[in-house]
Amino acid sequence: MWRSRQLLFLFFLGMLLTACRRDKDQPIYNPVPYQIDIPFGFPTKLNIPSDNPMTEEGIALGRFLFYDGRLSGRNHPDSLMSCGSCHVQSRNFEAGVDHPLFESGFVHGLNGQQTHHVMLPLVNLVWNHSGYGWNGFLYPENPNPGLRNIEDFVRLAVQAKDEMDADTSRVKALFQTLPGYPELFFNAFGTEKITFKNMERAIAQFVRTLISANAPFDRFLRGEYQLTASELNGYVLFTTEEGADCFHCHGGGGNPLFTTHLFYNNGKDSVFVDSLDRFAVTGDPMHRGAYKAPSLRNVAVSGPFMHDGRFETLDQVIDFYAHQVVYSDLIDPLMHHVLRGGVQLTPQEKTDLKAFIATLHDENFLTNPAYGPPAYFPDESFKSDSHD
Amino acid sequence: MYKSILFLSLLFIWFSACRSNHENEQNPSGEIQLGISHTVDGNPLATDTLQYVNAAGNHYLVSEIQWFLSDLKLEREDGKMVEPTDDMAYYIDTDLPESRSIVLRNLPDGNYRALHFTFGLNEENNRSGLFVNPPESFMFWPDYLGGGYHYMKLNGKWINADGLAEPFNFHLGIGQEYDSSALKSSYIRPNDCCAANHCEGYKPPSKMMPVRAFIQNSFEVTLSQNFVVRHGMKTKLEIEMKVENWFRGKHVYDHNRWGGSIMQQQAAMKQGLENGLDVFALHVTSISDVAK
Fold first, then answer.
1. Secondary structure of chain A in the HEC alphabet?
2. pTM for the whole thing?
C-alpha cells in the first residue's frame, strides 16, 4: 500500500513538473466550455454535433471568421466576402430589403450570380433539428455526412458559385499566413495548423450563439410585460383557427421558436416548378412546393419574404394569408381556409396581427455587440485604439 | 492483508450477485412491447391517398395523425392495477415509426385482463409549459382556447359538397363554451381563464375572448383483453386506432357540416370524442423469449 502511494505522489509531481515546463515553452490548450442558457419556455434539446462542442475560444474565433472578408480566399478589396456580407445582424442576419449592395435584399455572390432562393435568418438555429436551408437539405441523419449541419453550410457558402466561389484549401492557406489567427486556432482546437474543418467548426459555434429570446413577447411569457390591447388581440388571432390561424406552423406561447422548422406548402401557387423545393430532398411528390416555415422572430426587418422573395413587406404577407391563398392538390391540410381564399381578416385585425408580430422584434438581438462585427481582426490589432 | 481484502470483496460481490438473483426469483418480471397501429376499414392507414369513405359518405384522405396516449395502466386478473412506466404520456405520430413502439420492462408476472389509458392528457396534467421539446411542444393548444396540448391532430382532406378536396383539421383538445350574447369584441377577465390553472407559467393576459368556461374533453379508454406476462418473455401487444370510427358510432360525423377546423367548435369535438370510445382495440400479437 505504502509503495503505491509513493508512486502516486511521484506521478503527480511528474505531472506538475511537466505542466510547469510546458507553460514556459508554449501556451496550454485549455479551452473554456460554453454553456447555452436555455431561455424561458425554450426547448432544452440542442442541435450541437458531438464532434464540435462549444467553447469560448471557438466562438471568439468563429466570430472573427464570420466577419472576415478574406473568407473568400482573396485579399483584394474587390473580392472580399464573408458570411457577414450577406447575413447582417441588424436585419436579423439577412441582407434586408434596404441593403446598399443587394437590391431589394436579393443577394448574389462575388461573381454577380444571384442565389437560388432569398436568404434565411440566422436566429435560434441551435434549436433546429429538422433541416437547414429552405428545403432542409442539411439534416443530422443525412446519409451523406457532408450535408448534416451548420458546419457544412460554411463549406457550401465558401464554395458556392453564387456566394464566395472560393477554394477551401486556398482559404485555409491564406488564414495560416495572417498573424494572430494560428494562435486563435490553437486556443480553440489545440493546433496552430489551420484546417478548413476547424474553420467550419468555429463559425458554426458562433452561429449557434445567435439567440433571440428577449422580445416583448418573451417578457410577456416571463410575466414582465403586458401586451397592449391591439397586441393581445393579434395574439388571439395568431393562435386561433377562426382568427388568423398561424400557430400550427409558426408556434406561439407553447412554442416560442415561432416555427416548427417543418416544411409546408402554404398555398402561394398552383403550379410548382422550383427544382429546390422540399421534394428535391425527400423525393415525395406530395412535398412539391413545400418549404420550411421560417421563424417569425424579428421577421419585420428580414424581408423580402418567402423562399423566392415575392413579398417585400409584412403587410403584403398578411394580405396573402388573408385573401390570396391559392388552391392546389398539394396545399398543406393546415391551410384549411384555402377555399375561402384565406383567413379573411378585417383591416383592424390585420393591424392587430401585425402589432402582435412586432412583439417578436428583439432589439437586443439585433444590436448585441457580441453578435456584431469585431472592432478589428487578429492581424490588425494595432488598429484597436482607433476602432474602440 | 491486501490479499485478504481482495478475497473479502470478491466474496461480497459473489454474495450480492447471489442475492439479486434470488430477488428476481421472488419477483419475476417480464416485458411488453406495445405497438400502435392506425387502420382504416381494417387495413393499415395509407396516407395522402384519397381512397376512404366515412359513414357520412365523405370521401377523404388522411395526411398525418399525431396524438397523446397517457396514464397507461395494466389490469391484472384479480383487478389490481399495475403502472408499467414512469412516463406520464407518449407522443404518437404516423410519420415517426419510433413513436409507435413502446417497451415496458420489469412487469410483474401473471395474467392480465385489460389495458387502460387516457386519450390525450387528463385535466391535471394538461398544462401549458409541460413539454418544451419538439415534437410534443408542437402540440401546444393555445391558452386562449384552454391551454395545454392537442390530444390529437388528425389532418386530411375530404371532397366537399362542391366536389373540391377541402382540408380538414380534426383537432381535439380542451373545448370552450362561448358567451354567445357577448359581442365578438368583448372579453372576460383573465382570472376566469386562469382559475382552471391552464395559464401556468404565463402572466395572464388582461383581455380574453368571450369564453365562459373550458371543457375537458380527454377520456379514458379501457381495452379488455386477456394477456400474460412471463419472466424472461416478451409479450407483444398492439393498440389499434380505427380511424374510420372517429366519424361513426354514436354520431355520424359529417365534414360538410363541421368544416375544416373544429378547435373552437365544442359540438363537433364532442361528436368525435363520443365516437372515440369505439376507436381503439387491443390485440395480442405474440409472446416470445426476450432474446428474440
1. CHHHHHHHHHHHHHHHHHHHHHHHHCCCCCCCECCCCCCCCCCCCCCCCCCCCCEHHHHHHHHHHHHCHHHHCCCCHHHCCCHHHHCEHHHCCECCCCCCCCHHHCCECCCCCECCCCCCCCCCHHHCCCCECCCCCECCCCCCCCCCCHHHHHHHHHHCCCCCCCCHHHHHHHHHHCCCHHHHHHHHHCCCCCCHHHHHHHHHHHHHCCCCCCCHHHHHHCCCCCCCHHHHHHHHHHCCCCCCCCHHHHCECCECCCCCCCEECCCCCCCCCCCCCCHHHHCCHHHCCCEECCCCCCHHHCCCECCCCCECCHHHHHHHHHHCCCCCCCCCCCCCCHHHCCCCCCHHHHHHHHHHHHCCCCHHHHHCHHHCCCCCCHHHHHHHHHHC
2. 0.89
